[in-house]
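Thread: pyridoxal-5'-phosphate complex, take 2
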Amino acid sequence: ILFLFYWFLGSRIFPGARGFLVWGSLGSNQGCGTHAAALVDNQVVDWCKEMMGFPATASGTLVSGGSMANIIGLTVARNAKAGIDVREHGVAGIDKPLRFYGSDQLHSCHRKAMEALGLGNRALRRIPSDAGLRIDIAALRAAIAEDREAGFKPACVIGTAGTVNTGAIDDLQALADLAAKEDLWFHVDGCIGALLAIAPENSHRVAGIERAASIALDPHKWLHAPFEVGCALIRDASAHRSTFAVTPEYLESTPRGLASGHWLHDFGLQTTRGFRALKVWMALREHGIEKFGRLIDQNIAQGHYLGALIEAEPALELAAPANVNIVCFRYRADGLDGGRLKALNTEIMLRLQEEGIAAISDTTVHGQHCLRVAINNHRTRRDDLDLLVRETVRLGQEISRAGTAG
Ligand SMILES: Cc1ncc(COP(=O)(O)O)c(C=O)c1O
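Output below.
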């Protein structure tokens, strides 16, 4: 067995796969109209709202994944805060340049979003993170004040609930307070951690997420849906709709029949789209939210278990505290400089993959290279983690002895 611990993939489950199969054979188009598939789509969005503690009046849309869900949220934020009709006049008509804020641990999709929104990468100000890799709130406050002074228009703060590097969760309550005080849109990138909200032992970690103006979450991660499915939620449904709705004559709604009711394509960029809701609907109907919550708690307990194994192993060291289910660590080798240590750890990672033991990834934390394990498979067992640690140490010793890295 090859254990998959790289990036943050979730795993796949049977009801999801069955939903995928049925979707393929039904051929429903989720862009338009009132039909059973569209109602299922609405129900999944409603369940996502409930899981996040959002009001029933909020809206949402299912998209291909977290990157698109973030783009949807940030597009609504831009339009709501621009002070002009951006859809009509474009970003060139905005009087003061908009500023968005997030920590230096933000996922790369936010950069792509800024570029796609016509604001440019520099409109996204990266705020240093603290020792726990969470956004430094005092530094954020100072940056907002400095930008106002310099003639920018602070528009949106992006909080991360679970960074891709270490799973760190920004202080969402403090961000919600600051956003309210500064009149900023508060978007939460919860692609990794938003679903902690349904995990009884860990939901406190994302307290405040329910105060966001928009949230991106990823059912294809911790709900184990087959790829692809992400979800964007927007508290203000009319801001959401007015960002995307266009009604050409061939898509006008009718009082009854297929073309009546809530048109899903009014809430995103796609017109025709597939029935991705079904695989999530089937999985939630079959297993229930509580079971997914318990499995998330289980992954977090496993993250802590792995962290403790690493702390107890003299040949290894943690690169950051194992807070949730992402564990960053390295093989230690006295006397090696940063470059050679990186080469040694990279070689360990590649051999773990090539020998079919485990697929882990690597990253840089606090400026230093490290190995990274994300435990988000419901099939993972503690034995697997014991084996991972044993094999990492064995490979580290072997490579060091042979001098084959660096
Ligand atoms: C924090 C965060 N945001 C956004 C994304 C992008 O999500 P997706 O790969 O579903 O587009 C990821 C992916 O892992 C992520 O970890």
